[in-house]
């Protein structure tokens, strides 16, 4: 069992940066690929980014590609999502997820979800 707890969300202005964190419990964090998803009001949850178990491979959705960086610290059991040049359309609840590999995460095959953290970008 892995528990994921996100933090770092908040209210920011367009153009600002934000770093989300996801802390995982358990000793097997390094066994999981990790990802971030988001869900805006009235929309389906969508993939944002994923990183492989060892951190050597990353995958991004086009929506945040070039404006975000996902990273993973296995020693701290934490995955991060650095987001820059935020836009109002980035407003959503951001969820952390654990899965077997980046491809499965991108397809939405998730083993564990976090509870989400709200990101609101004002214009």
Observed structural traits:
4-stranded antiparallel sheet; 123 residues; single chain; globular; mainly beta; 7-stranded mixed sheet
What do these coordinates show?
The protein is mostly beta strands and about 120 residues long. It has 1 helix and 11 strands, in the order βββββββββαββ. The longest helix is centred in the last third of the chain and has 5 residues, at about 100-105. The chain is globular and about 40 Å long. It starts with a strand and ends with a strand.
Contiguous low-pLDDT stretches (5 residues minimum) are: none
Helix content estimate:
under 10%
Strand percent estimate = over 45%
Alpha-carbon Rg, integer: 13 Å
SSE pattern = EEEEEEEEEHEE
**What count of helical segments does DSSP give?**
1
| Assembly context of the chains | single chain
Overall residue-averaged pLDDT value = 95
Tell me the total number of β-strands: 11
Termini gap: 40 Å
Assign an overall shape.
globular
Structural class: mainly beta
Specify the biggest β-sheet. Answer: 7 strands, mixed
In short:
The termini are far apart. 4% of the residues lie in helices and 48% in strands. With 123 residues, the protein is mainly beta.
Question: Secondary-structure blueprint of this entry?
Answer:
Elements (H helix, E strand, L loop, with lengths): L3 E4 L2 E4 L4 E7 L8 E7 L6 E6 L6 E3 L7 E6 L4 E6 L8 E8 L2 H5 L5 E2 L3 E6 L1
